[in-house]
Amino acid sequence: MSLDKDTVKNIAYLARMRVADDKLEPLAGELSSILNWIEQLQELDTDGVEPMASVSDVVLPQRKDAVTDGNCQAAVLKNAPDSEDGFFAVPKVVE
Amino acid sequence: MSKLNELNIASARDGLARGEFSAAELTEVYIQAIQAGRDMNAYITETPDVALERARESDARRAKGDAMGAMDGIPIAMKDLFCTEGVLTTAGSHILDGFVPPYESTVSANLRSAGAVMLGKSNLDEFAMGSANITSYYGPVKNPWKATSGPNQGKDLVPGGSSGGSAAAVAGGLAMAATGTDTGGSIRQPASFCGIVGLKPTYGRCSRWGVVAFASSLDQAGPMTKTVQDAAIMLGAMAGHDPKDSTSAPLPVPDFEALMTGDVKGLTIGIPKEYKMDGMDPEIQALWDQGIAWLKDAGCIIKEVSLPHTKYALATYYIVAPAEASANLARYDGVRYGLRVPGDSLDDMYMNTRGAGFGEEVQRRILIGTYALSSGYYDAYYIKAQKVRTLISNDFKTAFESVDAILTPTAPSAAFALGEKQEDPVAMYLNDVFTVPTSLAGLPGMSVPAGFSSTGLPLGLQVIGRSFDEGTVLNVGAALEKAAGLNLKAVTGASS
Amino acid sequence: MSYILKGETGDWEVVIGLEVHCQVISNAKLFSGAATDFGAEPNTQVSLVDAAMPGMLPVINEQCVRQAIKTGLGLKAKINTKSVFARKNYFYADLPQGYQISQADQPIVGPGTIILDLADGTSREVGIERLHLEQDAGKSLHDQDPTRTFIDLNRTGVALMEIVSDPDMRSPEEAGAYLRKLRSIVRYLETCDGNMDQGSMRCDVNVSVRPVGSTELRTRAETKNVNSVRFAMQAIEYEAARQVAIYDGGGEVVQETRLFDSQKGVTRSMRSKEHAHDYRYFPDPDLLPLVFSDDLVAEIKATLPELPDERKDRYINVFGLSPYDAGVLVAEKDTAMYFEAVAEGRDAKMAANWVINNLFAVLSDRGVGISDSPISAVDLGKLLGLIVDETISTKIAKDVFEAMLETGDSPEKIVEDKGLKQITDTGAIEAAVDAAIAAGTAQVAQYKGGNEKILGWFVGQVMKSTQGKANPGQVNKLLKDKLDN
């Protein structure tokens, strides 16, 4: 499995990470070598094997429908790089 | 006073109880040691004021006869992955610049309510991604140990990772104990590199609430201590069911210290043949053989077991963990906390912030994870890895039908020099070859210092147990520790 | 009811599937303990979990699970006792986690059906593909500041049920009927308030077209977040015509996300979404599979209220109403409850007539719902009672009805105050009849000459002299007796 520059650029966009153009090529090489190494999994026959998402064998716990949280606007906004009038603020989004 | 930072939890507990010294005195010694040992870069944030305040509270409790147990007044380092209320929490990343959580993680809160004194936030690989503590935005940590011979003699060595700051702090006398987190070996491997005890509990034993997430199905907090007994004491204070973590096990916390009977007679210890890898360092093999002999002498039955899918564990891990991480780290977007690098549009701001805020290794893993989950590759990578994970877990289930614990080396080598293995990510990943399978299966594993390399560096052995059977792990670990009979002063004194 | 578009290249039919997001009625959010109330100060109904602070973890609200099961049962759907939450990954300012916790290939509810009641009185079945639980996103405000968008996370994490239909609908009318029926069902179930104007029910409309007679499914366009039944129907009309025009012109429809412009009644492409989406769904490792017992499903099933379809059947079979009238009355639960209160112990058909023909006209004139009806069900029932026991005639009853609207008084009081009680005293009626006959010699001659219709003139005279209060049956009988002899 070998990734080209464009693929890396596309994945980086999906992950919303700016990668400098001159870094794309070396990164493509590194990622390809990691993926090549991971290719070894393909030698295993896993037909009929259940995928394992969690090691826990308990069922999902559920909580009661009670309002126990919230009303902490100050704490929610405290670390925000930009906020105003109780809102978070981000660069203007044009839809 | 200088001897106070050679104590461990158990001996400090006794000294505090007898009134030989106060928690404040004990803490003061560590605060001074931390200041003197800054060159190690073990801490990102030092919290001497918080520490002294809590130490005095502890002393006040004790004076009233309200001392709370073994952890009361014990100065510890908190891996900077645990969110701590009112104290900068960085996860070793630029992207969390200035983040001061308005909340306290369950594990650190548990330790606090047990009376533990937080000395500061210890350094780590960025978002716990690394095996050498060289990916931290706050710089690498130095292992307090130095090679006494060989090519690395005198060089600065890595402490292992990702809990490298915690391991170095404990080994170097800058904390009596520390918290760590382990996703693929991040407690055990640095413990081995630094000559301390590191216990990764069963997945679900310690709450993940308030711990900056790396890979949610693998992350688990645990103690990093000078002795096995200390690990038992500290785990007891950290663990417990937490309704705020849906994957937290609804089980009572046993008295781990009491489960360490010292008697391992009749226990069957599995030796997985697949861990004897081609090209294995003979010193590591020798240490392992020595460990087997010690346990045999202690009355254990030694049995070869097979974990046939071991060789696929690392590749599996390097799909599962990055995939989960790629989503877990999506929240670092410059909107609600941490770094924001301005941009012309929302997308531009995201790209700038995440491009500048994450280091190379984190970016690499986010990209691998994003790719593995992307349309057209999901089945070939993610689902495949999850299926192999099932096979790896089943290997352990089968093995544990006939053995009580498994003994392996912790790491394939002793600590290496800063700057080594940095070019090739895969070479770095191989550090976790012995620890990752346990993580994938969610089982408890502990690294115990068991000997030294020919160059004078500590080496650890790993004890793996059944799900939620940390008791047996600790018991077997204590037997190894006793047999090894390492001079603890030699370990902690190495830095000076 | 077929909806055929005449294109230059032939006849086209439209294929419609709807994805409806229903906000679950619960006190707290799906995965956090913050409140769900509408209209609070910004970022006050937000927990640190909703704000996706580092290390925060989701814990599911059992009530949301029960509501989803209940809704699934109301849609006669398969309930999956094991389902899985997955992360749907994308970046947006009002999506703090960078992913939405949703359900992908293992939803809580599987296939079901919904029966559409169409305007011509016929019914049609539409398949439900699935219902799954997911988190709502927050709100972006673009018009508060010239250079910035403001973000309010109050809605972030509120539980939604996404209900996906099969592509079974073939006209805007059917889509409208689907939305109305679905809204009716969730309101009966009390699992969602169904208020599209407040956004607690939102609709994504998937439209494609194909030549009549074809069975292929062509490329569809998805119009997002349509917030009324009427807009959904307009969007479909517009989309269908747009797509036919594209095919007629030799072009191809592209799969894309569109927005409905309610002012212009058109859909337009969302430029901001032109980058291909790759949501990278995978099971959320913070949550284990959601598993519950068949017993829980049975327990919830036992609490299900009578739903509109069953109620309609009962109105038809027990009350003898027409399918149309029954459908109209059951569409809204409040209407059905009102109707049943009026009909209680009375002639149900008569009650249905009064509600549909008289009351509905008033409500629609005044633009109010049945819950704000100026006449209570109790009073309307009493009015009907007065007709049945012959205290007043049907004609007088209509006057009383008007007076009730004006004064809000009870019908008894109005009848009493205005002296509208029907005259049944034979002597009094006979006097009025005699007077009418005496006054109408010419009309008597016409009657005798065979013009029976002239009888109406005499009735009119009698009613005039009794202010309409004479019992019409008695008047008729007496007139005939006298004129025929």
Automatic annotation (TrEMBL), chain A:
GO terms for biological process: glutaminyl-tRNAGln biosynthesis via transamidation; regulation of translational fidelity; translation. Its EC number is 6.3.5.-. GO terms for molecular function: asparaginyl-tRNA synthase (glutamine-hydrolyzing) activity; ATP binding; glutaminyl-tRNA synthase (glutamine-hydrolyzing) activity; transferase activity. It catalyses: L-aspartyl-tRNA(Asn) + L-glutamine + ATP + H2O = L-asparaginyl-tRNA(Asn) + L-glutamate + ADP + phosphate + 2 H(+); L-glutamyl-tRNA(Gln) + L-glutamine + ATP + H2O = L-glutaminyl-tRNA(Gln) + L-glutamate + ADP + phosphate + H(+). Coiled coil: none annotated. It is an enzyme of class 6 (ligase). It comes from the Bacteria. NCBIfam families: gatC. Allows the formation of correctly charged Asn-tRNA(Asn) or Gln-tRNA(Gln) through the transamidation of misacylated Asp-tRNA(Asn) or Glu-tRNA(Gln) in organisms which lack either or both of asparaginyl-tRNA or glutaminyl-tRNA synthetases. The reaction takes place in the presence of glutamine and ATP through an activated phospho-Asp-tRNA(Asn) or phospho-Glu-tRNA(Gln). Heterotrimer of A, B and C subunits. Belongs to the GatC family. This is Aspartyl/glutamyl-tRNA(Asn/Gln) amidotransferase subunit C. It comes from Magnetovibrio blakemorei. The gene is gatC.
UniProtKB/TrEMBL annotation, chain B:
It holds the Pfam family Amidase. PROSITE patterns: AMIDASES. GO terms for molecular function: ATP binding; glutaminyl-tRNA synthase (glutamine-hydrolyzing) activity; transferase activity. GO terms for biological process: translation. It catalyses: L-glutamyl-tRNA(Gln) + L-glutamine + ATP + H2O = L-glutaminyl-tRNA(Gln) + L-glutamate + ADP + phosphate + H(+). Residues 25-474 form the Amidase domain. Allows the formation of correctly charged Gln-tRNA(Gln) through the transamidation of misacylated Glu-tRNA(Gln) in organisms which lack glutaminyl-tRNA synthetase. The reaction takes place in the presence of glutamine and ATP through an activated gamma-phospho-Glu-tRNA(Gln). Heterotrimer of A, B and C subunits. This is Glutamyl-tRNA(Gln) amidotransferase subunit A. It comes from Magnetovibrio blakemorei.
TrEMBL record, chain C:
GO terms for biological process: glutaminyl-tRNAGln biosynthesis via transamidation; translation. This is Aspartyl/glutamyl-tRNA(Asn/Gln) amidotransferase subunit B. It comes from Magnetovibrio blakemorei. The lineage of its organism: Bacteria, Pseudomonadati, Pseudomonadota, Alphaproteobacteria, Rhodospirillales. It is an enzyme of class 6 (ligase). One of its GO terms (molecular function) is asparaginyl-tRNA synthase (glutamine-hydrolyzing) activity. Its EC number is 6.3.5.-. Signal peptide: none annotated. Heterotrimer of A, B and C subunits. Residues 337-483 form the Asn/Gln amidotransferase domain. It catalyses: L-aspartyl-tRNA(Asn) + L-glutamine + ATP + H2O = L-asparaginyl-tRNA(Asn) + L-glutamate + ADP + phosphate + 2 H(+); L-glutamyl-tRNA(Gln) + L-glutamine + ATP + H2O = L-glutaminyl-tRNA(Gln) + L-glutamate + ADP + phosphate + H(+).
